[in-house]
Design brief:
Helices cover 38% and strands 19% of the residues. With 259 residues, it is α/β, with parallel strands linked by helices. Helix 1 packs parallel to helix 7, helix 2 runs parallel beside helix 3 and helix 7 crosses helix 8. The structure holds pyridoxal-5'-phosphate. Pyridoxal-5'-phosphate binds next to strand 1 and helix 7.
Length: 259
């Protein structure tokens, strides 16, 4: 059996993003999924209504209990709400063997603009979490925040992506959903382009979906990262096209079906 995959993420009780979605994706790819909640939110198809961090000491202990007992295959980092949770996550990541693959999806705001990371945590996130990312998956606004560059076109985007590669030492996938639709994968000095058209459907949890699917593919396949990104993007695109209007609000939900 393959080693378990662990998600450290916020709980969206509607199951459209965060920890619940990550676990569904791990399971759909034949992985045993584990998760420690970083925050409890309240949300539905209309957007996020509230959010509060979990208790720091319980989070630390929760991570320790997993670390001392299991050999993990990979970890996906999602929402880290405050500096205490960022610090405990960093210590946990630093204690893991280098072979554990770490995907970091920076979660700063929800699609509807609700803040999901307190401002004071951002610096610590950059200093302590980014260096351990084997794969970082920012969208355009997050690339601007993390690189400190304002991105108006492809030239600045390329600069921003290369700057983030230097901060992580791993690969960086800059997602183009907030821009012109093309995704850019940076690995070392190389860049792969994934052209795409923007989809009109307002689906919830697309960032979580892509990052946890990439971790699942990385743990179950020997193919190269650019091929895995192509596969994950195709799966996400199909899921967005078939997304479900589960509630009364505008946000549509992604169903998880073998990716
Ligand atoms: N809630 C949680 C727990 C999340 O992790 C995220 C995004 O990563 C969101 C809400 C926001 O999702 P969206 O912006 O797709 O609505």
């Amino acid at each position: 059996m393959r080693p378990p995959a662990l998600s450290l993420a916020g709980v969206d009780p509607s199951g459209g993003a965060g920890l619940l979605l990550d676990i569904k994706i791990f399971q759909s790819r034949g992985l045993y999924g584990m998760g420690v909640a970083t925050a409890l939110t309240g949300q539905n198809s209309r957007g996020v209504s509230f959010s509060r961090p979990v208790e720091r000491e319980e989070y630390r202990r929760g991570l320790e209990l997993l670390r001392e007992d299991f050999s993990l295959g990979g970890v996906k980092i999602g929402m880290l709400p405050d500096a205490g949770i960022v610090e405990e996550t960093a210590r946990f990541l630093e204690s893991l063997p280098r072979s554990v693959f770490v995907v970091v999806d920076p979660v700063i705001r929800s699609g509807t603009g609700f803040p999901l990371m307190e401002e004071g945590a951002l610096h610590l996130f950059q200093e302590r979490i980014l260096p351990r990312a084997d794969l970082l998956t920012p969208n355009l606004p997050e690339t601007e925040i993390l690189s400190g560059l304002s991105i108006g076109g492809e030239l600045e985007l390329l600069k921003g992506g290369h700057a983030l590669v230097r901060k992580t030492g791993g690969a960086v996938l800059v997602k183009g959903g907030h821009g012109w639709g093309t995704d850019y994968l940076f690995q070392g000095d190389r860049v792969w382009l994934f052209p795409g058209r923007l989809l009109k459907k307002d689906a919830h949890g697309t960032g979580c979906y892509l990052s946890s699917l990439l971790l699942a593919l990385r743990l179950t396949s020997r193919r190269s990262l650019p091929l895995l990104v192509g596969e994950a993007k195709a799966c996400l695109r199909e899921r967005i096209q078939k997304s479900l209007p589960l509630g009364k609000g505008d946000k549509r939900y992604l169903e998880v079906k073998n990716g």
